[in-house]
Amino acid sequence: MDKKRKPLAVVENRIEVAASPEILWTCFADVGKWPRWFPGLIEMEWTAGTAWALGAQFRQSVQFGFPLGKVTGVGAITEISPSPYVAWEGKVVGVEAIHGFRFDATASGVEVLSRHEFYGSLALLARLLFLTRRVHKIYQAALEGLKAYVETGTIQLRMPM
């Protein structure tokens, strides 16, 4: 996340998933399957670069409901590490945003943290209009969907040969 400036709005969500970090990352990294667990997602596709590599770019559309409706933004991967942690930056409806997902091993699985930082004058307006509550609700539903998706075993992982 951006250490040089202070965000005007921040939304964080956490959930614990009963899986290894490797299985969780495998499920998360397959953006073609995001619609199976991210209820608000309309589309997510890579548009430039190698998936999950620094500088890779994507387009994502999410249904935010009234008053925003469908919001489409573009992002670029700005951080990625084997811990695993990934962050991307982009602009959505005139608001600069940094989104990050971190997967920390726990005694019973993995804690997933999603953090969304918003910058610029429109970010303050979003906070005043309670749009950050909507973002919180959408990403909590996404994390709950990811948890259910991973824990019910609906994804087929290939065993290493």
What do these coordinates show?
This protein is α+β, with helices and mostly antiparallel strands and 161 residues long. The protein has a single domain (11-151), classed as 2-Layer Sandwich (Alpha-D-Glucose-1,6-Bisphosphate, Chain A, domain 4), CATH 3.30.530. It has 4 helices and 7 strands. Strands 1-7-6-5-4-3-2 form a 7-stranded antiparallel sheet. The N and C termini lie far apart (37 Å). Residues 155-161 have low confidence and may be disordered.
How does the SSE layout of this entry go?
Blueprint: E1 9-17, H1 21-29, H2 34-37, E2 41-48, E3 57-63, E4 70-81, E5 85-92, E6 95-106, E7 109-119, H3 121-128, H4 131-151
Antiparallel strand pairs: 1-7, 2-3, 3-4, 4-5, 5-6, 6-7
Q: What is the CA–CA distance across the termini? A: 37 Å
Low-confidence stretches: 155-161
What does the largest sheet look like?
7 strands, antiparallel
Number of helices: 4
Named CATH topology: Alpha-D-Glucose-1,6-Bisphosphate, Chain A, domain 4
Strands, count: 7
What is the CATH class designation?
Alpha Beta
Q: Mind telling me the C-alpha Rg?
A: 16 Å
User: What shape does the CA trace take?
Assistant: globular
- Classification by helices and strands: alpha+beta
Numbering strands along the chain, what is their spatial order in the largest sheet? 1-7-6-5-4-3-2
CATH-defined superfamily:
START domain
Approximately what portion of the residues adopt beta-strand conformation? Answer: 35-45%
Named at the architecture level, the CATH assignment is 2-Layer Sandwich
What string, H for helix and E for strand, traces the elements in order?
A: EHHEEEEEEHH
What is the overall pLDDT average?
85
Task: Domain count, please report it.
Answer: 1
Helical content (DSSP H or I, runs of 4+): 25-40%
